[in-house]
Amino acid sequence: MIDLLINLLNIPSPTFQEEKITDFIEDWMFCHVEGVLVKTVGNSRIFSLPMIDNLPHIGLVGHTDVVPKHFEVYQRKDLLFGAGASDMKGALAPFMMLMESCSKWSDRHLNFSFVLYCAEEGTPLEENGLYHLILGEEEFLKTLDLAIVGEPTNGCIQVGCVGSLHAEVIIRGVACHSARPWDGENALYKALPFIRSIAEIKPLKKTVFGVDFFDVINVTESKSENGRTSIPGQWACNINYRYAPGPSMQEAEIEFNNLLVSTGFEKLEFTVLDHVPSAQIIETELLNKFVCFLGRQVEAKQAWTDVAQLNGIDIPAFNFGPGLTQQAHKANEYISLRDVVDYYKILHELIKNY
Amino acid sequence: MIDLLINLLNIPSPTFQEEKITDFIEDWMFCHVEGVLVKTVGNSRIFSLPMIDNLPHIGLVGHTDVVPKHFEVYQRKDLLFGAGASDMKGALAPFMMLMESCSKWSDRHLNFSFVLYCAEEGTPLEENGLYHLILGEEEFLKTLDLAIVGEPTNGCIQVGCVGSLHAEVIIRGVACHSARPWDGENALYKALPFIRSIAEIKPLKKTVFGVDFFDVINVTESKSENGRTSIPGQWACNINYRYAPGPSMQEAEIEFNNLLVSTGFEKLEFTVLDHVPSAQIIETELLNKFVCFLGRQVEAKQAWTDVAQLNGIDIPAFNFGPGLTQQAHKANEYISLRDVVDYYKILHELIKNY
Q1: CATH number of the domain that A51 lies in?
Q2: For the CA atoms of chain B, what is the radius of gyration?
Q3: Do the interacting molecules here have an ipTM over 0.90?
Q4: Which of A30, A72, B211, B252 lies 20 to 30 angstroms, CA to CA, from A85?
Q5: Which residues of chain B are within 8 Å of residue A229 when distances are taken between CB atoms?
Q6: Which of A180, A221, A304 sits opposite B224 (nearest CB)?
Q7: Which of B177, B220, B232 is opposite residue A303, by nearest beta carbon?
Q8: Are residues A153 and A195 in the same domain?
Q9: Average pLDDT, stretch B60-65?
Q10: pLDDT value at position A5?
Q11: Which of B276, B297, B313 is where one domain is finished?
C-alpha cells in the first residue's frame, strides 16, 4: 500500500490539472478490482463493486487535487513527505486497497463505491468537482447509505460542518488630500465602532450530536487604499460568518443580518458574496454503528467541508482520514505511515466484520 | 499668448515623456527671446536673459509634465480644456511671453531666468527633475534672489509648504483559520486602539509669515489581507505626517516618533519610508515687495511643493499661478483664459515698474 501511496504522490495533481492522476487511478482500479464499474463526470469518477441487492451502500469519498507545490516524495523514518500526503492522497491509497480486497471476497455484507472527485480546493462551489459529480450522478449517489470522507482528521471522526458566509462590507467616508484632512472624512476612522462591535461578538457554542460547534463572525481581509497621500474615502472588508449545523441558509442569512444590525452602524452597506450551508448531522443506525465500531474520538468539524454537499442530497456522512489537519496545504506536507496503515486496518476490520 | 498655450497643451507630456515639449519650448525661446542663454540638464532647462550686473535675479519656475491622460484641446467660452491646463502649462505660456517681452526692453531693472524642469510629478524625490537640475546647476540657481513657482494657486500667493513624512506601521497578530478564531489573534482588532489614538490627534495650528499651517497625522492606506478565510496575522498601514515650516527634518522625525509613542501602543513596529522637508519662508525685502505689489491673498501652502527644494538651497520662493488647484490632476482639466491673461498682465506690470 505504501508503494501505491508513493506512486500517487509522485504524480503532480494541482487543482484543475488532475487528468493524469485520474487516469492512473482508473487504470489501477481496472487492473486490481474485479468487476469494477465506473461512472465518469469530467475528471471525477465513481468506481463501484457489482451491486448486491438489499445491502447497505457505503461510499469512500476522496479528492485528487493537492494544494502545495509538487516535490519529489521522500521518507524520513515513519514520515512520508509529498504534496497532498495528508490532504488527502494518504486516504486514497487505503480506499483503493479496500476496494481491491472487497472485490476478492466471496461473501460481503456491504456494497461499495469509491467516489473520487477533482477540484475540491476550487472555490467558488461552482468549480468544485463534487458539485459537478452530484449534478451528473445525483440519482446514483443518493443510493449511498453512508459516506466516509477521507479528509485529514488526525484519525478522529469529525461530524457535521459549519456553514460559511462571506460578505463584503463597505463604509464610505469622503476622500481628500492627506495634508488637509478637514476637507474629507477618513473611512477607516468611521469604521472603527463597527469593527469594534464585530470584534466583541463572542463565539456562540451550540452542541449538536454531542459535540460542540461555534457560531463565529470575523473581519478577515480589509483595506483602505486610494493612495498614500489621500484620506481614504472608502474602507472595505470581508466578513466571514460561520455557523453550527441547524439553521437553513435563509435562517443563517437572517441571523447574519441581525448580527450586523446589532453593531448599531446605521445604513450599513453590505453584499453577501457567497454562502455554503452547514452540514446537518443525519443520524442513522448505520452511521452510529460505524462510529461506535471505529471507537475514535468524535469531534465537531469547525470548518467547511464537502460533507455539506453530501448532506445536501441526504447522504449521512462524516470526515475520517489518516492525514494530519495541521499538514494540510503546508509546503512540505507529510503523513505518518503508521497512521495510513492503521487507517486501512480499522476500515478493513470494520467492513470484514460487518 | 492663448495660441501659444494651445500649442503647449496639444503636445502630450506625461511625466518622463517630456522631450517633445522641451524641444518645442527651446525652439520657441531661441526664435522669440533675443540673446537667450540656455543650460541643459536632461530634459530640464534654464533659459536666461543676458545678465546685467547688480540687478536682482528673478526665477520663473515651472514644470513640463502633466498628470491627466492627453486629450485634444477645446474651448468653451472662457474655459480652455487640456491636460495640464491648470497644472501648469497655463503658467508656462505667460512665463515664455514675459521672457520675450523683457528681452526686447532697452532698459530693465531685473535679471530673469525661466527655470523649466521635467518630472515634477515623479516620486520619490530622486526622480524629480528639479532635484536633478539643482544637482547639476546648483551654483547658478543659487544666484536667484526670488523664485515665482507657477503651480496652480487660484491666483493667490501661497507661501511655504508643509513637510511630509510617510511611514509604514505594521501590527502583528497571529493568523489562523477564520472558523476557529481562538487559534489566533486578529491583527486588525489588535490595531484598533492605535488607529483610534491616531484619529484623536487634532490638527495643530502654527502661524508662520502671518498665515496658518497645520501639523496633521493620518492613517491613509491600510490593509489586512491574507485571504478571506483567515484571521489576519498582520495589519499594515501608511501614516502620513505633515508639519508646518519650522522644524528640521530630524526634529520632525523626533516629533513623529513622539506622536506614535503618545498612542500608548507598546513596541510599535514602524519604518519611515520617505520624507521631504517643509519649506521655511525666507523673508527678504524683495519677496515682501513682490508680494505687496501683487496684492493677492496670501495663503499657507498646506501641501508639499517644489518650493521646498528651492528653499533648501536658500532661494526665497512662493507659489503663484493662474491655474485652479481643484483642476490639478483632473481628467478633463481646464483653466480660465481670463485668469491666464490677468496673470500675465500683473507680472508684466510688476516687472516693468520695478
Answers
A1: 3.40.630.10
A2: 23
A3: no
A4: A30
A5: 164, 220, 240
A6: A221
A7: B177
A8: no
A9: 96
A10: 97
A11: B276
Cα separation of A127 and A276, whole Å?
Answer: 13
Cβ separation B179–A196 shorter than 8 A: no
Of B276, B306, B323, which marks where a domain is finished? B276
pLDDT at B272 over 90: yes
What's residue B123's pLDDT? 64
A238 C-beta neighbours (distance < 10 Å), count:
21
Residue B253 has pLDDT above 70, yes or no: yes
CATH code for the domain of B195: 3.30.70.360
- Which among B166, B189, B227 is the nearest to A221, CB-wise? B227
Q: What's the gap between Cα B34 and its chain centre?
A: 31
Q: Are residues B144 and B37 in the same domain?
A: yes
Crossing angle, helix B19-32 and helix B2-10, to 10 degrees? 150
CA distance A72 to chain B (A): 28
Adjacent-strand bridge partners of A275: A165
pLDDT at B299: 92
Domain co-membership, B203 together with B187: yes
Residues B191 and B340 in one domain: no
Q: Parallel, antiparallel, or unpaired for β A157-159 and B298-300?
A: unpaired
What distance in Å separates the CA atoms of residue A51 and residue A58, rounded to the nearest whole number? 11
Residue matched to cell numbers 502671518: B210
Cα B187 to Cα B232: distance, rounded to the nearest angstrom: 6
Give me the number of domains chain A comprises.
Answer: 2
pLDDT value at A62 more than 70: yes
**pLDDT of B175 over the 80 cut:** yes
**From A181, A220, A228, residue closest to B221, measured CB to CB:** A228
Are residues A177 and B303, on separate chains, in Cβ contact within 8 Å? yes
Quote the domain boundaries for residue B229. 163-276
Per-residue pLDDT, B306: 87
Cβ atoms within 10 A of the Cβ of B343, count? 25
**Contact across the interface for A164 and B182, Cβ inside 8 Å:** no
Nearest to A219 among B188, B203, B242 (CB): B188
Q: What is the pLDDT of residue B122?
A: 64
Q: Are residues A169 and A108 in the same domain?
A: no
pLDDT 10s digits, A319-332: 999 999 888 888 88
Interacting residues of B110 by C-beta distance below 8 A, sequence separation 6+ = B55, B56, B57, B58, B102, B351, B354
Using an 8 Å CB-CB cutoff, list chain B residues near A222. 188, 222-225, 232, 235
| Sequential DSSP letters for A105-146 | -S--S-EEEEEEES-TT-SSGGG-HHHHHHHHHHHHHTT-SE
| Distance, CA of A28 to CA of A5 (rounded, Å) | 12
Residue with cell 437572517: A254
User: Distance between CA atoms of A91 and A343, rounded to whole angstroms?
Assistant: 8
- Return the number of CB contacts < 8 Å for A and B: 124
Residue B180 with chain A: CB contacts under 8 Å: 216, 302-303
Residues in chain B within 8 Å Cβ distance of A227: 220-221
* C-alpha to C-alpha distances, B104 to A212, B1, B107, nearest whole angstrom: 92, 16, 9
Q: Note whether B224 contacts A224, CB cutoff 8 Å.
A: no
- Verify that A151 and A167 share a domain, yes or no: no
- By C-alpha distance, which of B224, B187, B238, B173 is closest to A221? B224
For chain B, the average pLDDT equals 94
In this structure, the answer to whether residues B97 and B169 fall within a common structural domain is no
Task: Say whether B218 and A304 touch across the interface (CB within 8 A).
Answer: no
Extended strands (E) in chain B = 37-41, 44-48, 57-63, 74-76, 79-81, 111-117, 146-149, 157-159, 163-172, 176-177, 204-208, 211-224, 230-231, 234-243, 269-276, 298-300, 317-320, 334-336
Cα angle vertex A125, ends A120, A126, to 5°? 105
